[in-house]
Amino acid sequence: MSHQTILITGASRGVGLALTQAFAAKGYAVIATCRNPDTATQLKKLAHENTAVSILPLDVADAASLQSLTASLGDQPIDILINNAGISSGANPHVTALDNDASQNIGTLDPAAWEKLFRVNTIAPLMVTQALLPNLKKAETRKIAMISSGWGSIANMDEGVFMAYGSSKAALNYATKSIALSLQTERFVVVTLNPGWVQTDMGSPKADLTPNESAARLLRVITMLTPEQTGLFIRHTGEILPW
Ligand SMILES: NC(=O)c1ccc[n+]([C@@H]2O[C@H](COP(=O)([O-])OP(=O)(O)OC[C@H]3O[C@@H](n4cnc5c(N)ncnc54)[C@H](OP(=O)(O)O)[C@@H]3O)[C@@H](O)[C@H]2O)c1
């Protein structure tokens, strides 16, 4: 059983909720953040049943919300940060992996939708990481994981769909390697992870993995990370992915 502290964004449902459950079951103190704690019914139930889970509000794309979070945390050490919160479309929050989102197709691109997607999927995880660096430096573990996507790989791209979503994750991957290189001398391990195709609101019920299966695999990858792996793009299976 671990006595480390982990902070997870987007813990209200899907992969974030499953990661919260998985890490809490291994004895981690989990700071589960979500933008609307009042409506996060499953997360509240989990926190009620397991005192290792605490809930704090965080809208990752809102600077004031991030500032409130850091004020609540004070100088509490954090061992691991997982930037999980993400959206599939800036035009419609209910777009699943099976849908066609016109705002991302050449011919009907919507710049406002792109900006929203990049704000949540690319810029927000960087701002959250930056804001929590003092807390991460107070612990020895110093691990940061970005939840990216297979669609963030340019090398593996085989269809011209979800252009904005994939671009937001490819940009996140670039930034992750940059942060990894910048923080290497301070003994940080910073990686970007592909959780697989997961049965969540975003992934759709047709996806390959249940949230618990994906979370168990991500937990294994994250807990086994070595300093040599910093800056890598890693699949839930542990396989290294091409950019
Ligand atoms: N499912 C898949 O097949 C799949 C595949 C590859 C990558 N991913 C990635 O995995 C991560 C989790 O996705 P998921 O499948 O679990 O999606 P999901 O079920 O749609 O859940 C998304 C989570 O992100 C949160 N979120 C969205 N915008 C936020 C914001 N501004 N501030 C705070 N939280 C916010 C949501 O909170 P609310 O409940 O408040 O909306 C929710 O907790 C994402 O980064 C996604 O891109 C998923």
Low-confidence stretches: none
Terminal CA distance:
34 Å
Q: State the helix count.
A: 6
* CATH level-3 fold name: Rossmann fold
Helix-and-strand structural type: alpha/beta
Instruction: Give helix % range.
Output: 25-40%
| Adjacency order of strands in the biggest sheet | 3-2-1-4-5-6-7
Strand residue content: 5-15%
Describe how the helices and strands are arranged.
Layout: E1 5-8, H1 14-25, E2 29-34, H2 41-49, E3 53-57, H3 63-73, E4 80-83, H4 111-137, E5 143-147, H5 163-183, E6 189-194, H6 211-223, E7 233-235
Parallel strand pairs: 1-2, 1-4, 2-3, 4-5, 5-6, 6-7
Helix pairs in contact: 1-6, 3-4, 4-5
Task: Report what the structure shows.
The protein has 243 residues and is an alpha/beta fold. It has one domain: 3-Layer(aba) Sandwich (Rossmann fold). It contains 6 helices and 7 strands, in the order E-H-E-H-E-H-E-H-E-H-E-H-E. It has helices at 14-25, 41-49, 63-73, 111-137, 163-183, 211-223; strands spanning 5-8, 29-34, 53-57, 80-83, 143-147, 189-194, 233-235. It has a 7-stranded parallel beta sheet with strand order 3-2-1-4-5-6-7, with helices on both faces. Helix 4 (111-137) links the parallel strand 4 and strand 5. Helix 1 (14-25) crosses helix 6, helix 3 packs parallel to helix 4 and helix 4 (111-137) runs parallel beside helix 5 (163-183). It starts with a strand and ends in an 8-residue tail after the last strand. The structure holds NADP nicotinamide-adenine-dinucleotide phosphate. NADP nicotinamide-adenine-dinucleotide phosphate binds at residues 9-10, 12-16, 34-36, 58-61, 84-87, 97, 120, 147, 149, 195, 197-198, 200-203, 207.
